[in-house]
């Protein structure tokens, strides 16, 4: 094997290792992004549900309890 062939093998091996590393890094960040997007979707769903929850709690408390709290 010539010196040039050895350099080519070394370079090819190095490039493949770097590509694998970048692929793993990309997958890591895609997983983090997916987790963040899921957390944002959950937060949006909770925020959307707040008015209905507040309404349900107000109805469950009854008008007199709501009036007492409004005076405080």
Provide a descriptive summary of the structure in words:
With 72 residues, the chain is mainly alpha-helical. The protein is 96% helix and 0% strand. The chain is built from one helix and no strands. The protein has one helix at residues 3-71. It is rod-shaped. The relative contact order is 0.05.
Describe the structure concisely for a colleague.
The chain has 72 residues and is mainly α. It is 96% helix and 0% strand.
Tag the structure with descriptive keywords.
72 residues, mainly alpha
Low-confidence stretches: none
Report the sheet-strand fraction: under 5%
The helix-and-strand class reads: mainly alpha
Task: Give a count of the beta strands, DSSP E runs of length 2 or more.
Answer: 0
Number of H/I helices:
1
C-alpha termini separation: 89 Å
- Helix percent reads over 70%
Q: Tell me, rounded to a whole number, the average pLDDT.
A: 89
Multimerization state? single chain
The helix/strand series, from N terminus to C terminus, equals: H
Main sheet characteristics: none
Q: Any idea what the radius of gyration is?
A: 30 Å
Choose one word for the global shape: rod-shaped
Helix and strand arrangement:
Elements: H1 3-71
